[in-house]
Structures are given as structure tokens and as C-alpha cells.
Amino acid sequence: MDLLLLLVGLALILGGGNYLTDGASALAQRLRMPEFLIGMTIVAIGTSMPELVVSVLSSMKGQPEMAIGNVVGSNVMNICLILGLCAVVRPIAFTRDNIRFDIPFTIAASLLLIILALDTVIGTGMVDTIGRGDGILMLALYIALMIFMIRHAERPEPKEGGEKPMALWLSLVMIVGGLGALIYGGDLFLDSATNIALKLGVSESVIALTLVAGGTSLPELAASLISLIKGKSDMALGNILGSNIMNILGILGISALIQPLPMGGILPRDLFVVLMTAVLVFLSAFTFRSRELDRAEGGILLAVYAVYIYILVA
Judging by beta carbons within 10 Å of its beta carbon (0-12, 13-18, 19+), is residue 292 exposed, middle or buried? Predict the structure, then answer.
């Protein structure tokens, strides 16, 4: 039965990702907003809803390892597996704003997570915990960042003689419907995968960093790959970077407000992997005189993810 639910969830994820991409692209065209910004805000926030639900519920139930591990694992998966896989399918070009603002913001959020979580390492406390004060700071920074991104975005010029934009209500229906299918499908996939793992005797922290993180990242995977296949690489990149920032500043911020989050079985190594992967994406913009994440660099990200999962499991 778990295997059947796994397949049903996967089908909903793929279908939802298709509708979400089309609806978001149509919305960007009608509102004259860059597809990257739509990906980094509407699509990223929508596809991060599973992470939000899992982390908030885990915090309320007194399972901080699950709340933190879900975010950490999702961020590593988003960059190494999803962005790496996208680059292998089709190289992703970086814009000037990606290099100056978007990727550095992702690195800064990852660094902030290390500073706030590793109190014993930084020397600011006796226990490694993300407290309520940290949560308030994270949420304030997230709101400020989103306001900056929206104000800073350059509006594309309207195309003359192009296709008539999709009706606003229809694009919104496609976005909401696509997100609904993504989230429900991801929930089915997550539950069935977790049940299988528990039967195999896998520990809670490893489940959080791998299966739970993988299940909640499936919407990002589907939305990004489908966007890329449809030639909308800006939306795919924006979805990944926006989701990672949302996961750290938004989701952990809300979870920490509900209840302080001690690190528990989540090791400093895991947080530094989150930072390292974001730095790797930034460095890829300056290799081989091409400002893009090419297939070779995508392969490197996939290899890093494989090594990380091996270390976790072994």
C-alpha cells in the first residue's frame, strides 16, 4: 500500500508542477514582473509549504531535530540534487543580479543559520539552540529581503504583437491548483516513504535529513525541472534560491517562535554543508569565463550530494 501511495503522490507532484509553472509564467507576463522574481517569491513560498507544515508541526510536538533537519536537508537537496540535476539537463545562466544579490543573499542566510544555531561553537551560549529572539530576527530579515527584491526588480518591457496574456483569474487558479497538487502529492509521498524507512529501522535524525527533506523538496524538484524544460531557467533558479532563503529565515523563524529549537542530533557538519553548497553555486559563476552553472558543475553538485547522503547513512 505504501508503494502505491508513493506512485500516486509522484503523479500529483508532476501534474501540479506543470500547472504551477504555466500559471506562474502567465502571471509574470500579465504583471510585467521578471520570471526570476515570480520564482523567488510566489513559486518559492508555495513550494516551501510542505517544509513549513512539517517544521512547524515538529516544533509544536517537541521534535526540534525533525524541524531543523527538514530545513537543513531540504536546502542541501535543493542546491546539490535539484539545481545540479537541472544544470545537467540544461546549463543555467546567471544574471548580473543573481551574482550581486540573489546568490550572496542565500550564502548570507546560510551563514546566519550557523551563527544563530551553533552557540557553543561561536561562544554565545552553553547549548546549541535557535531561540525565540533568533526567530524574530530571521522573520524580520526575511520580510525586509522580500521587500528589497520586489522594489529592486526591473520590469520587462511589454512585447508588441505578442500573444494575449492569460486571464488573471485563470493563472491564479492554475497556481493554486498546481500548488495544491504538489503539496498533497508530496504529503502522500512523504508519509509512505517515512513508513518504509521506519520499518527498516532508520533513525529520526537521518529520516529528517534524507526522506523528510526529500519528500518536502519534491515540489521544488518538479517545479524547477518543468520550468527548465519549458525554457524558463530564471524561474527554476529563483525557485531554488527563494526556497532556501524561505526555509532558513521564514520556516525556522516561525518554528523557533513557537518553541526554541535545540540542535540535538543535527551536527555542525550539516549546517556547514548548507553553507558550502551555496558557496559552490556562487563560485560556478566565475569558472571557464562563462556566467552559468554548466553540466560539469551540475555533476559536481550531484557528486557532493551523493557523498553527503553516504556519510549520513553510513
Answer: middle
Q: Which amino acid is at 117?
A: A
Contacts of residue 205, defined as CB under 8 A and 6 or more positions apart, other chains included, come to 65, 69, 264, 265, 266
d(C-alpha 182, C-alpha 215), whole Å = 11
Q: What is the pTM of this model?
A: 0.81
Cα–Cα distance between 238 and 82 in angstroms, integer? 12
Q: Are 239 and 223 in contact (CB under 8 A)?
A: yes
CA dihedral 114, 61, 211, 222 (to 10 degrees): -80
Please report the pLDDT score of residue 233 as a whole number.
Answer: 85
What are the pLDDT digits (tens) for 183-213?
Answer: 787 677 667 766 766 676 666 566 666 766 7
- Residue 83 CA from chain centroid, whole number: 10
CA-to-CA distance for 237 and 55, rounded, in angstroms?
Answer: 24
Query: What is the rounded (10 degree) CA torsion for 159, 161, 167, 170?
Result: -80
Residue 160 scores a pLDDT above 60:
no
Nearest to 261 by CA among 276, 269, 271, 272: 271
pLDDT digits (tens, 9 = 90+) for 274-296: 999 999 999 998 876 678 899 99
Return the percentage of the chain with pLDDT > 90, whole number.
32
List alpha helices for 43-167, DSSP H.
Answer: 44-47, 49-60, 64-76, 84-89, 96-97, 103-117, 119-122, 132-152
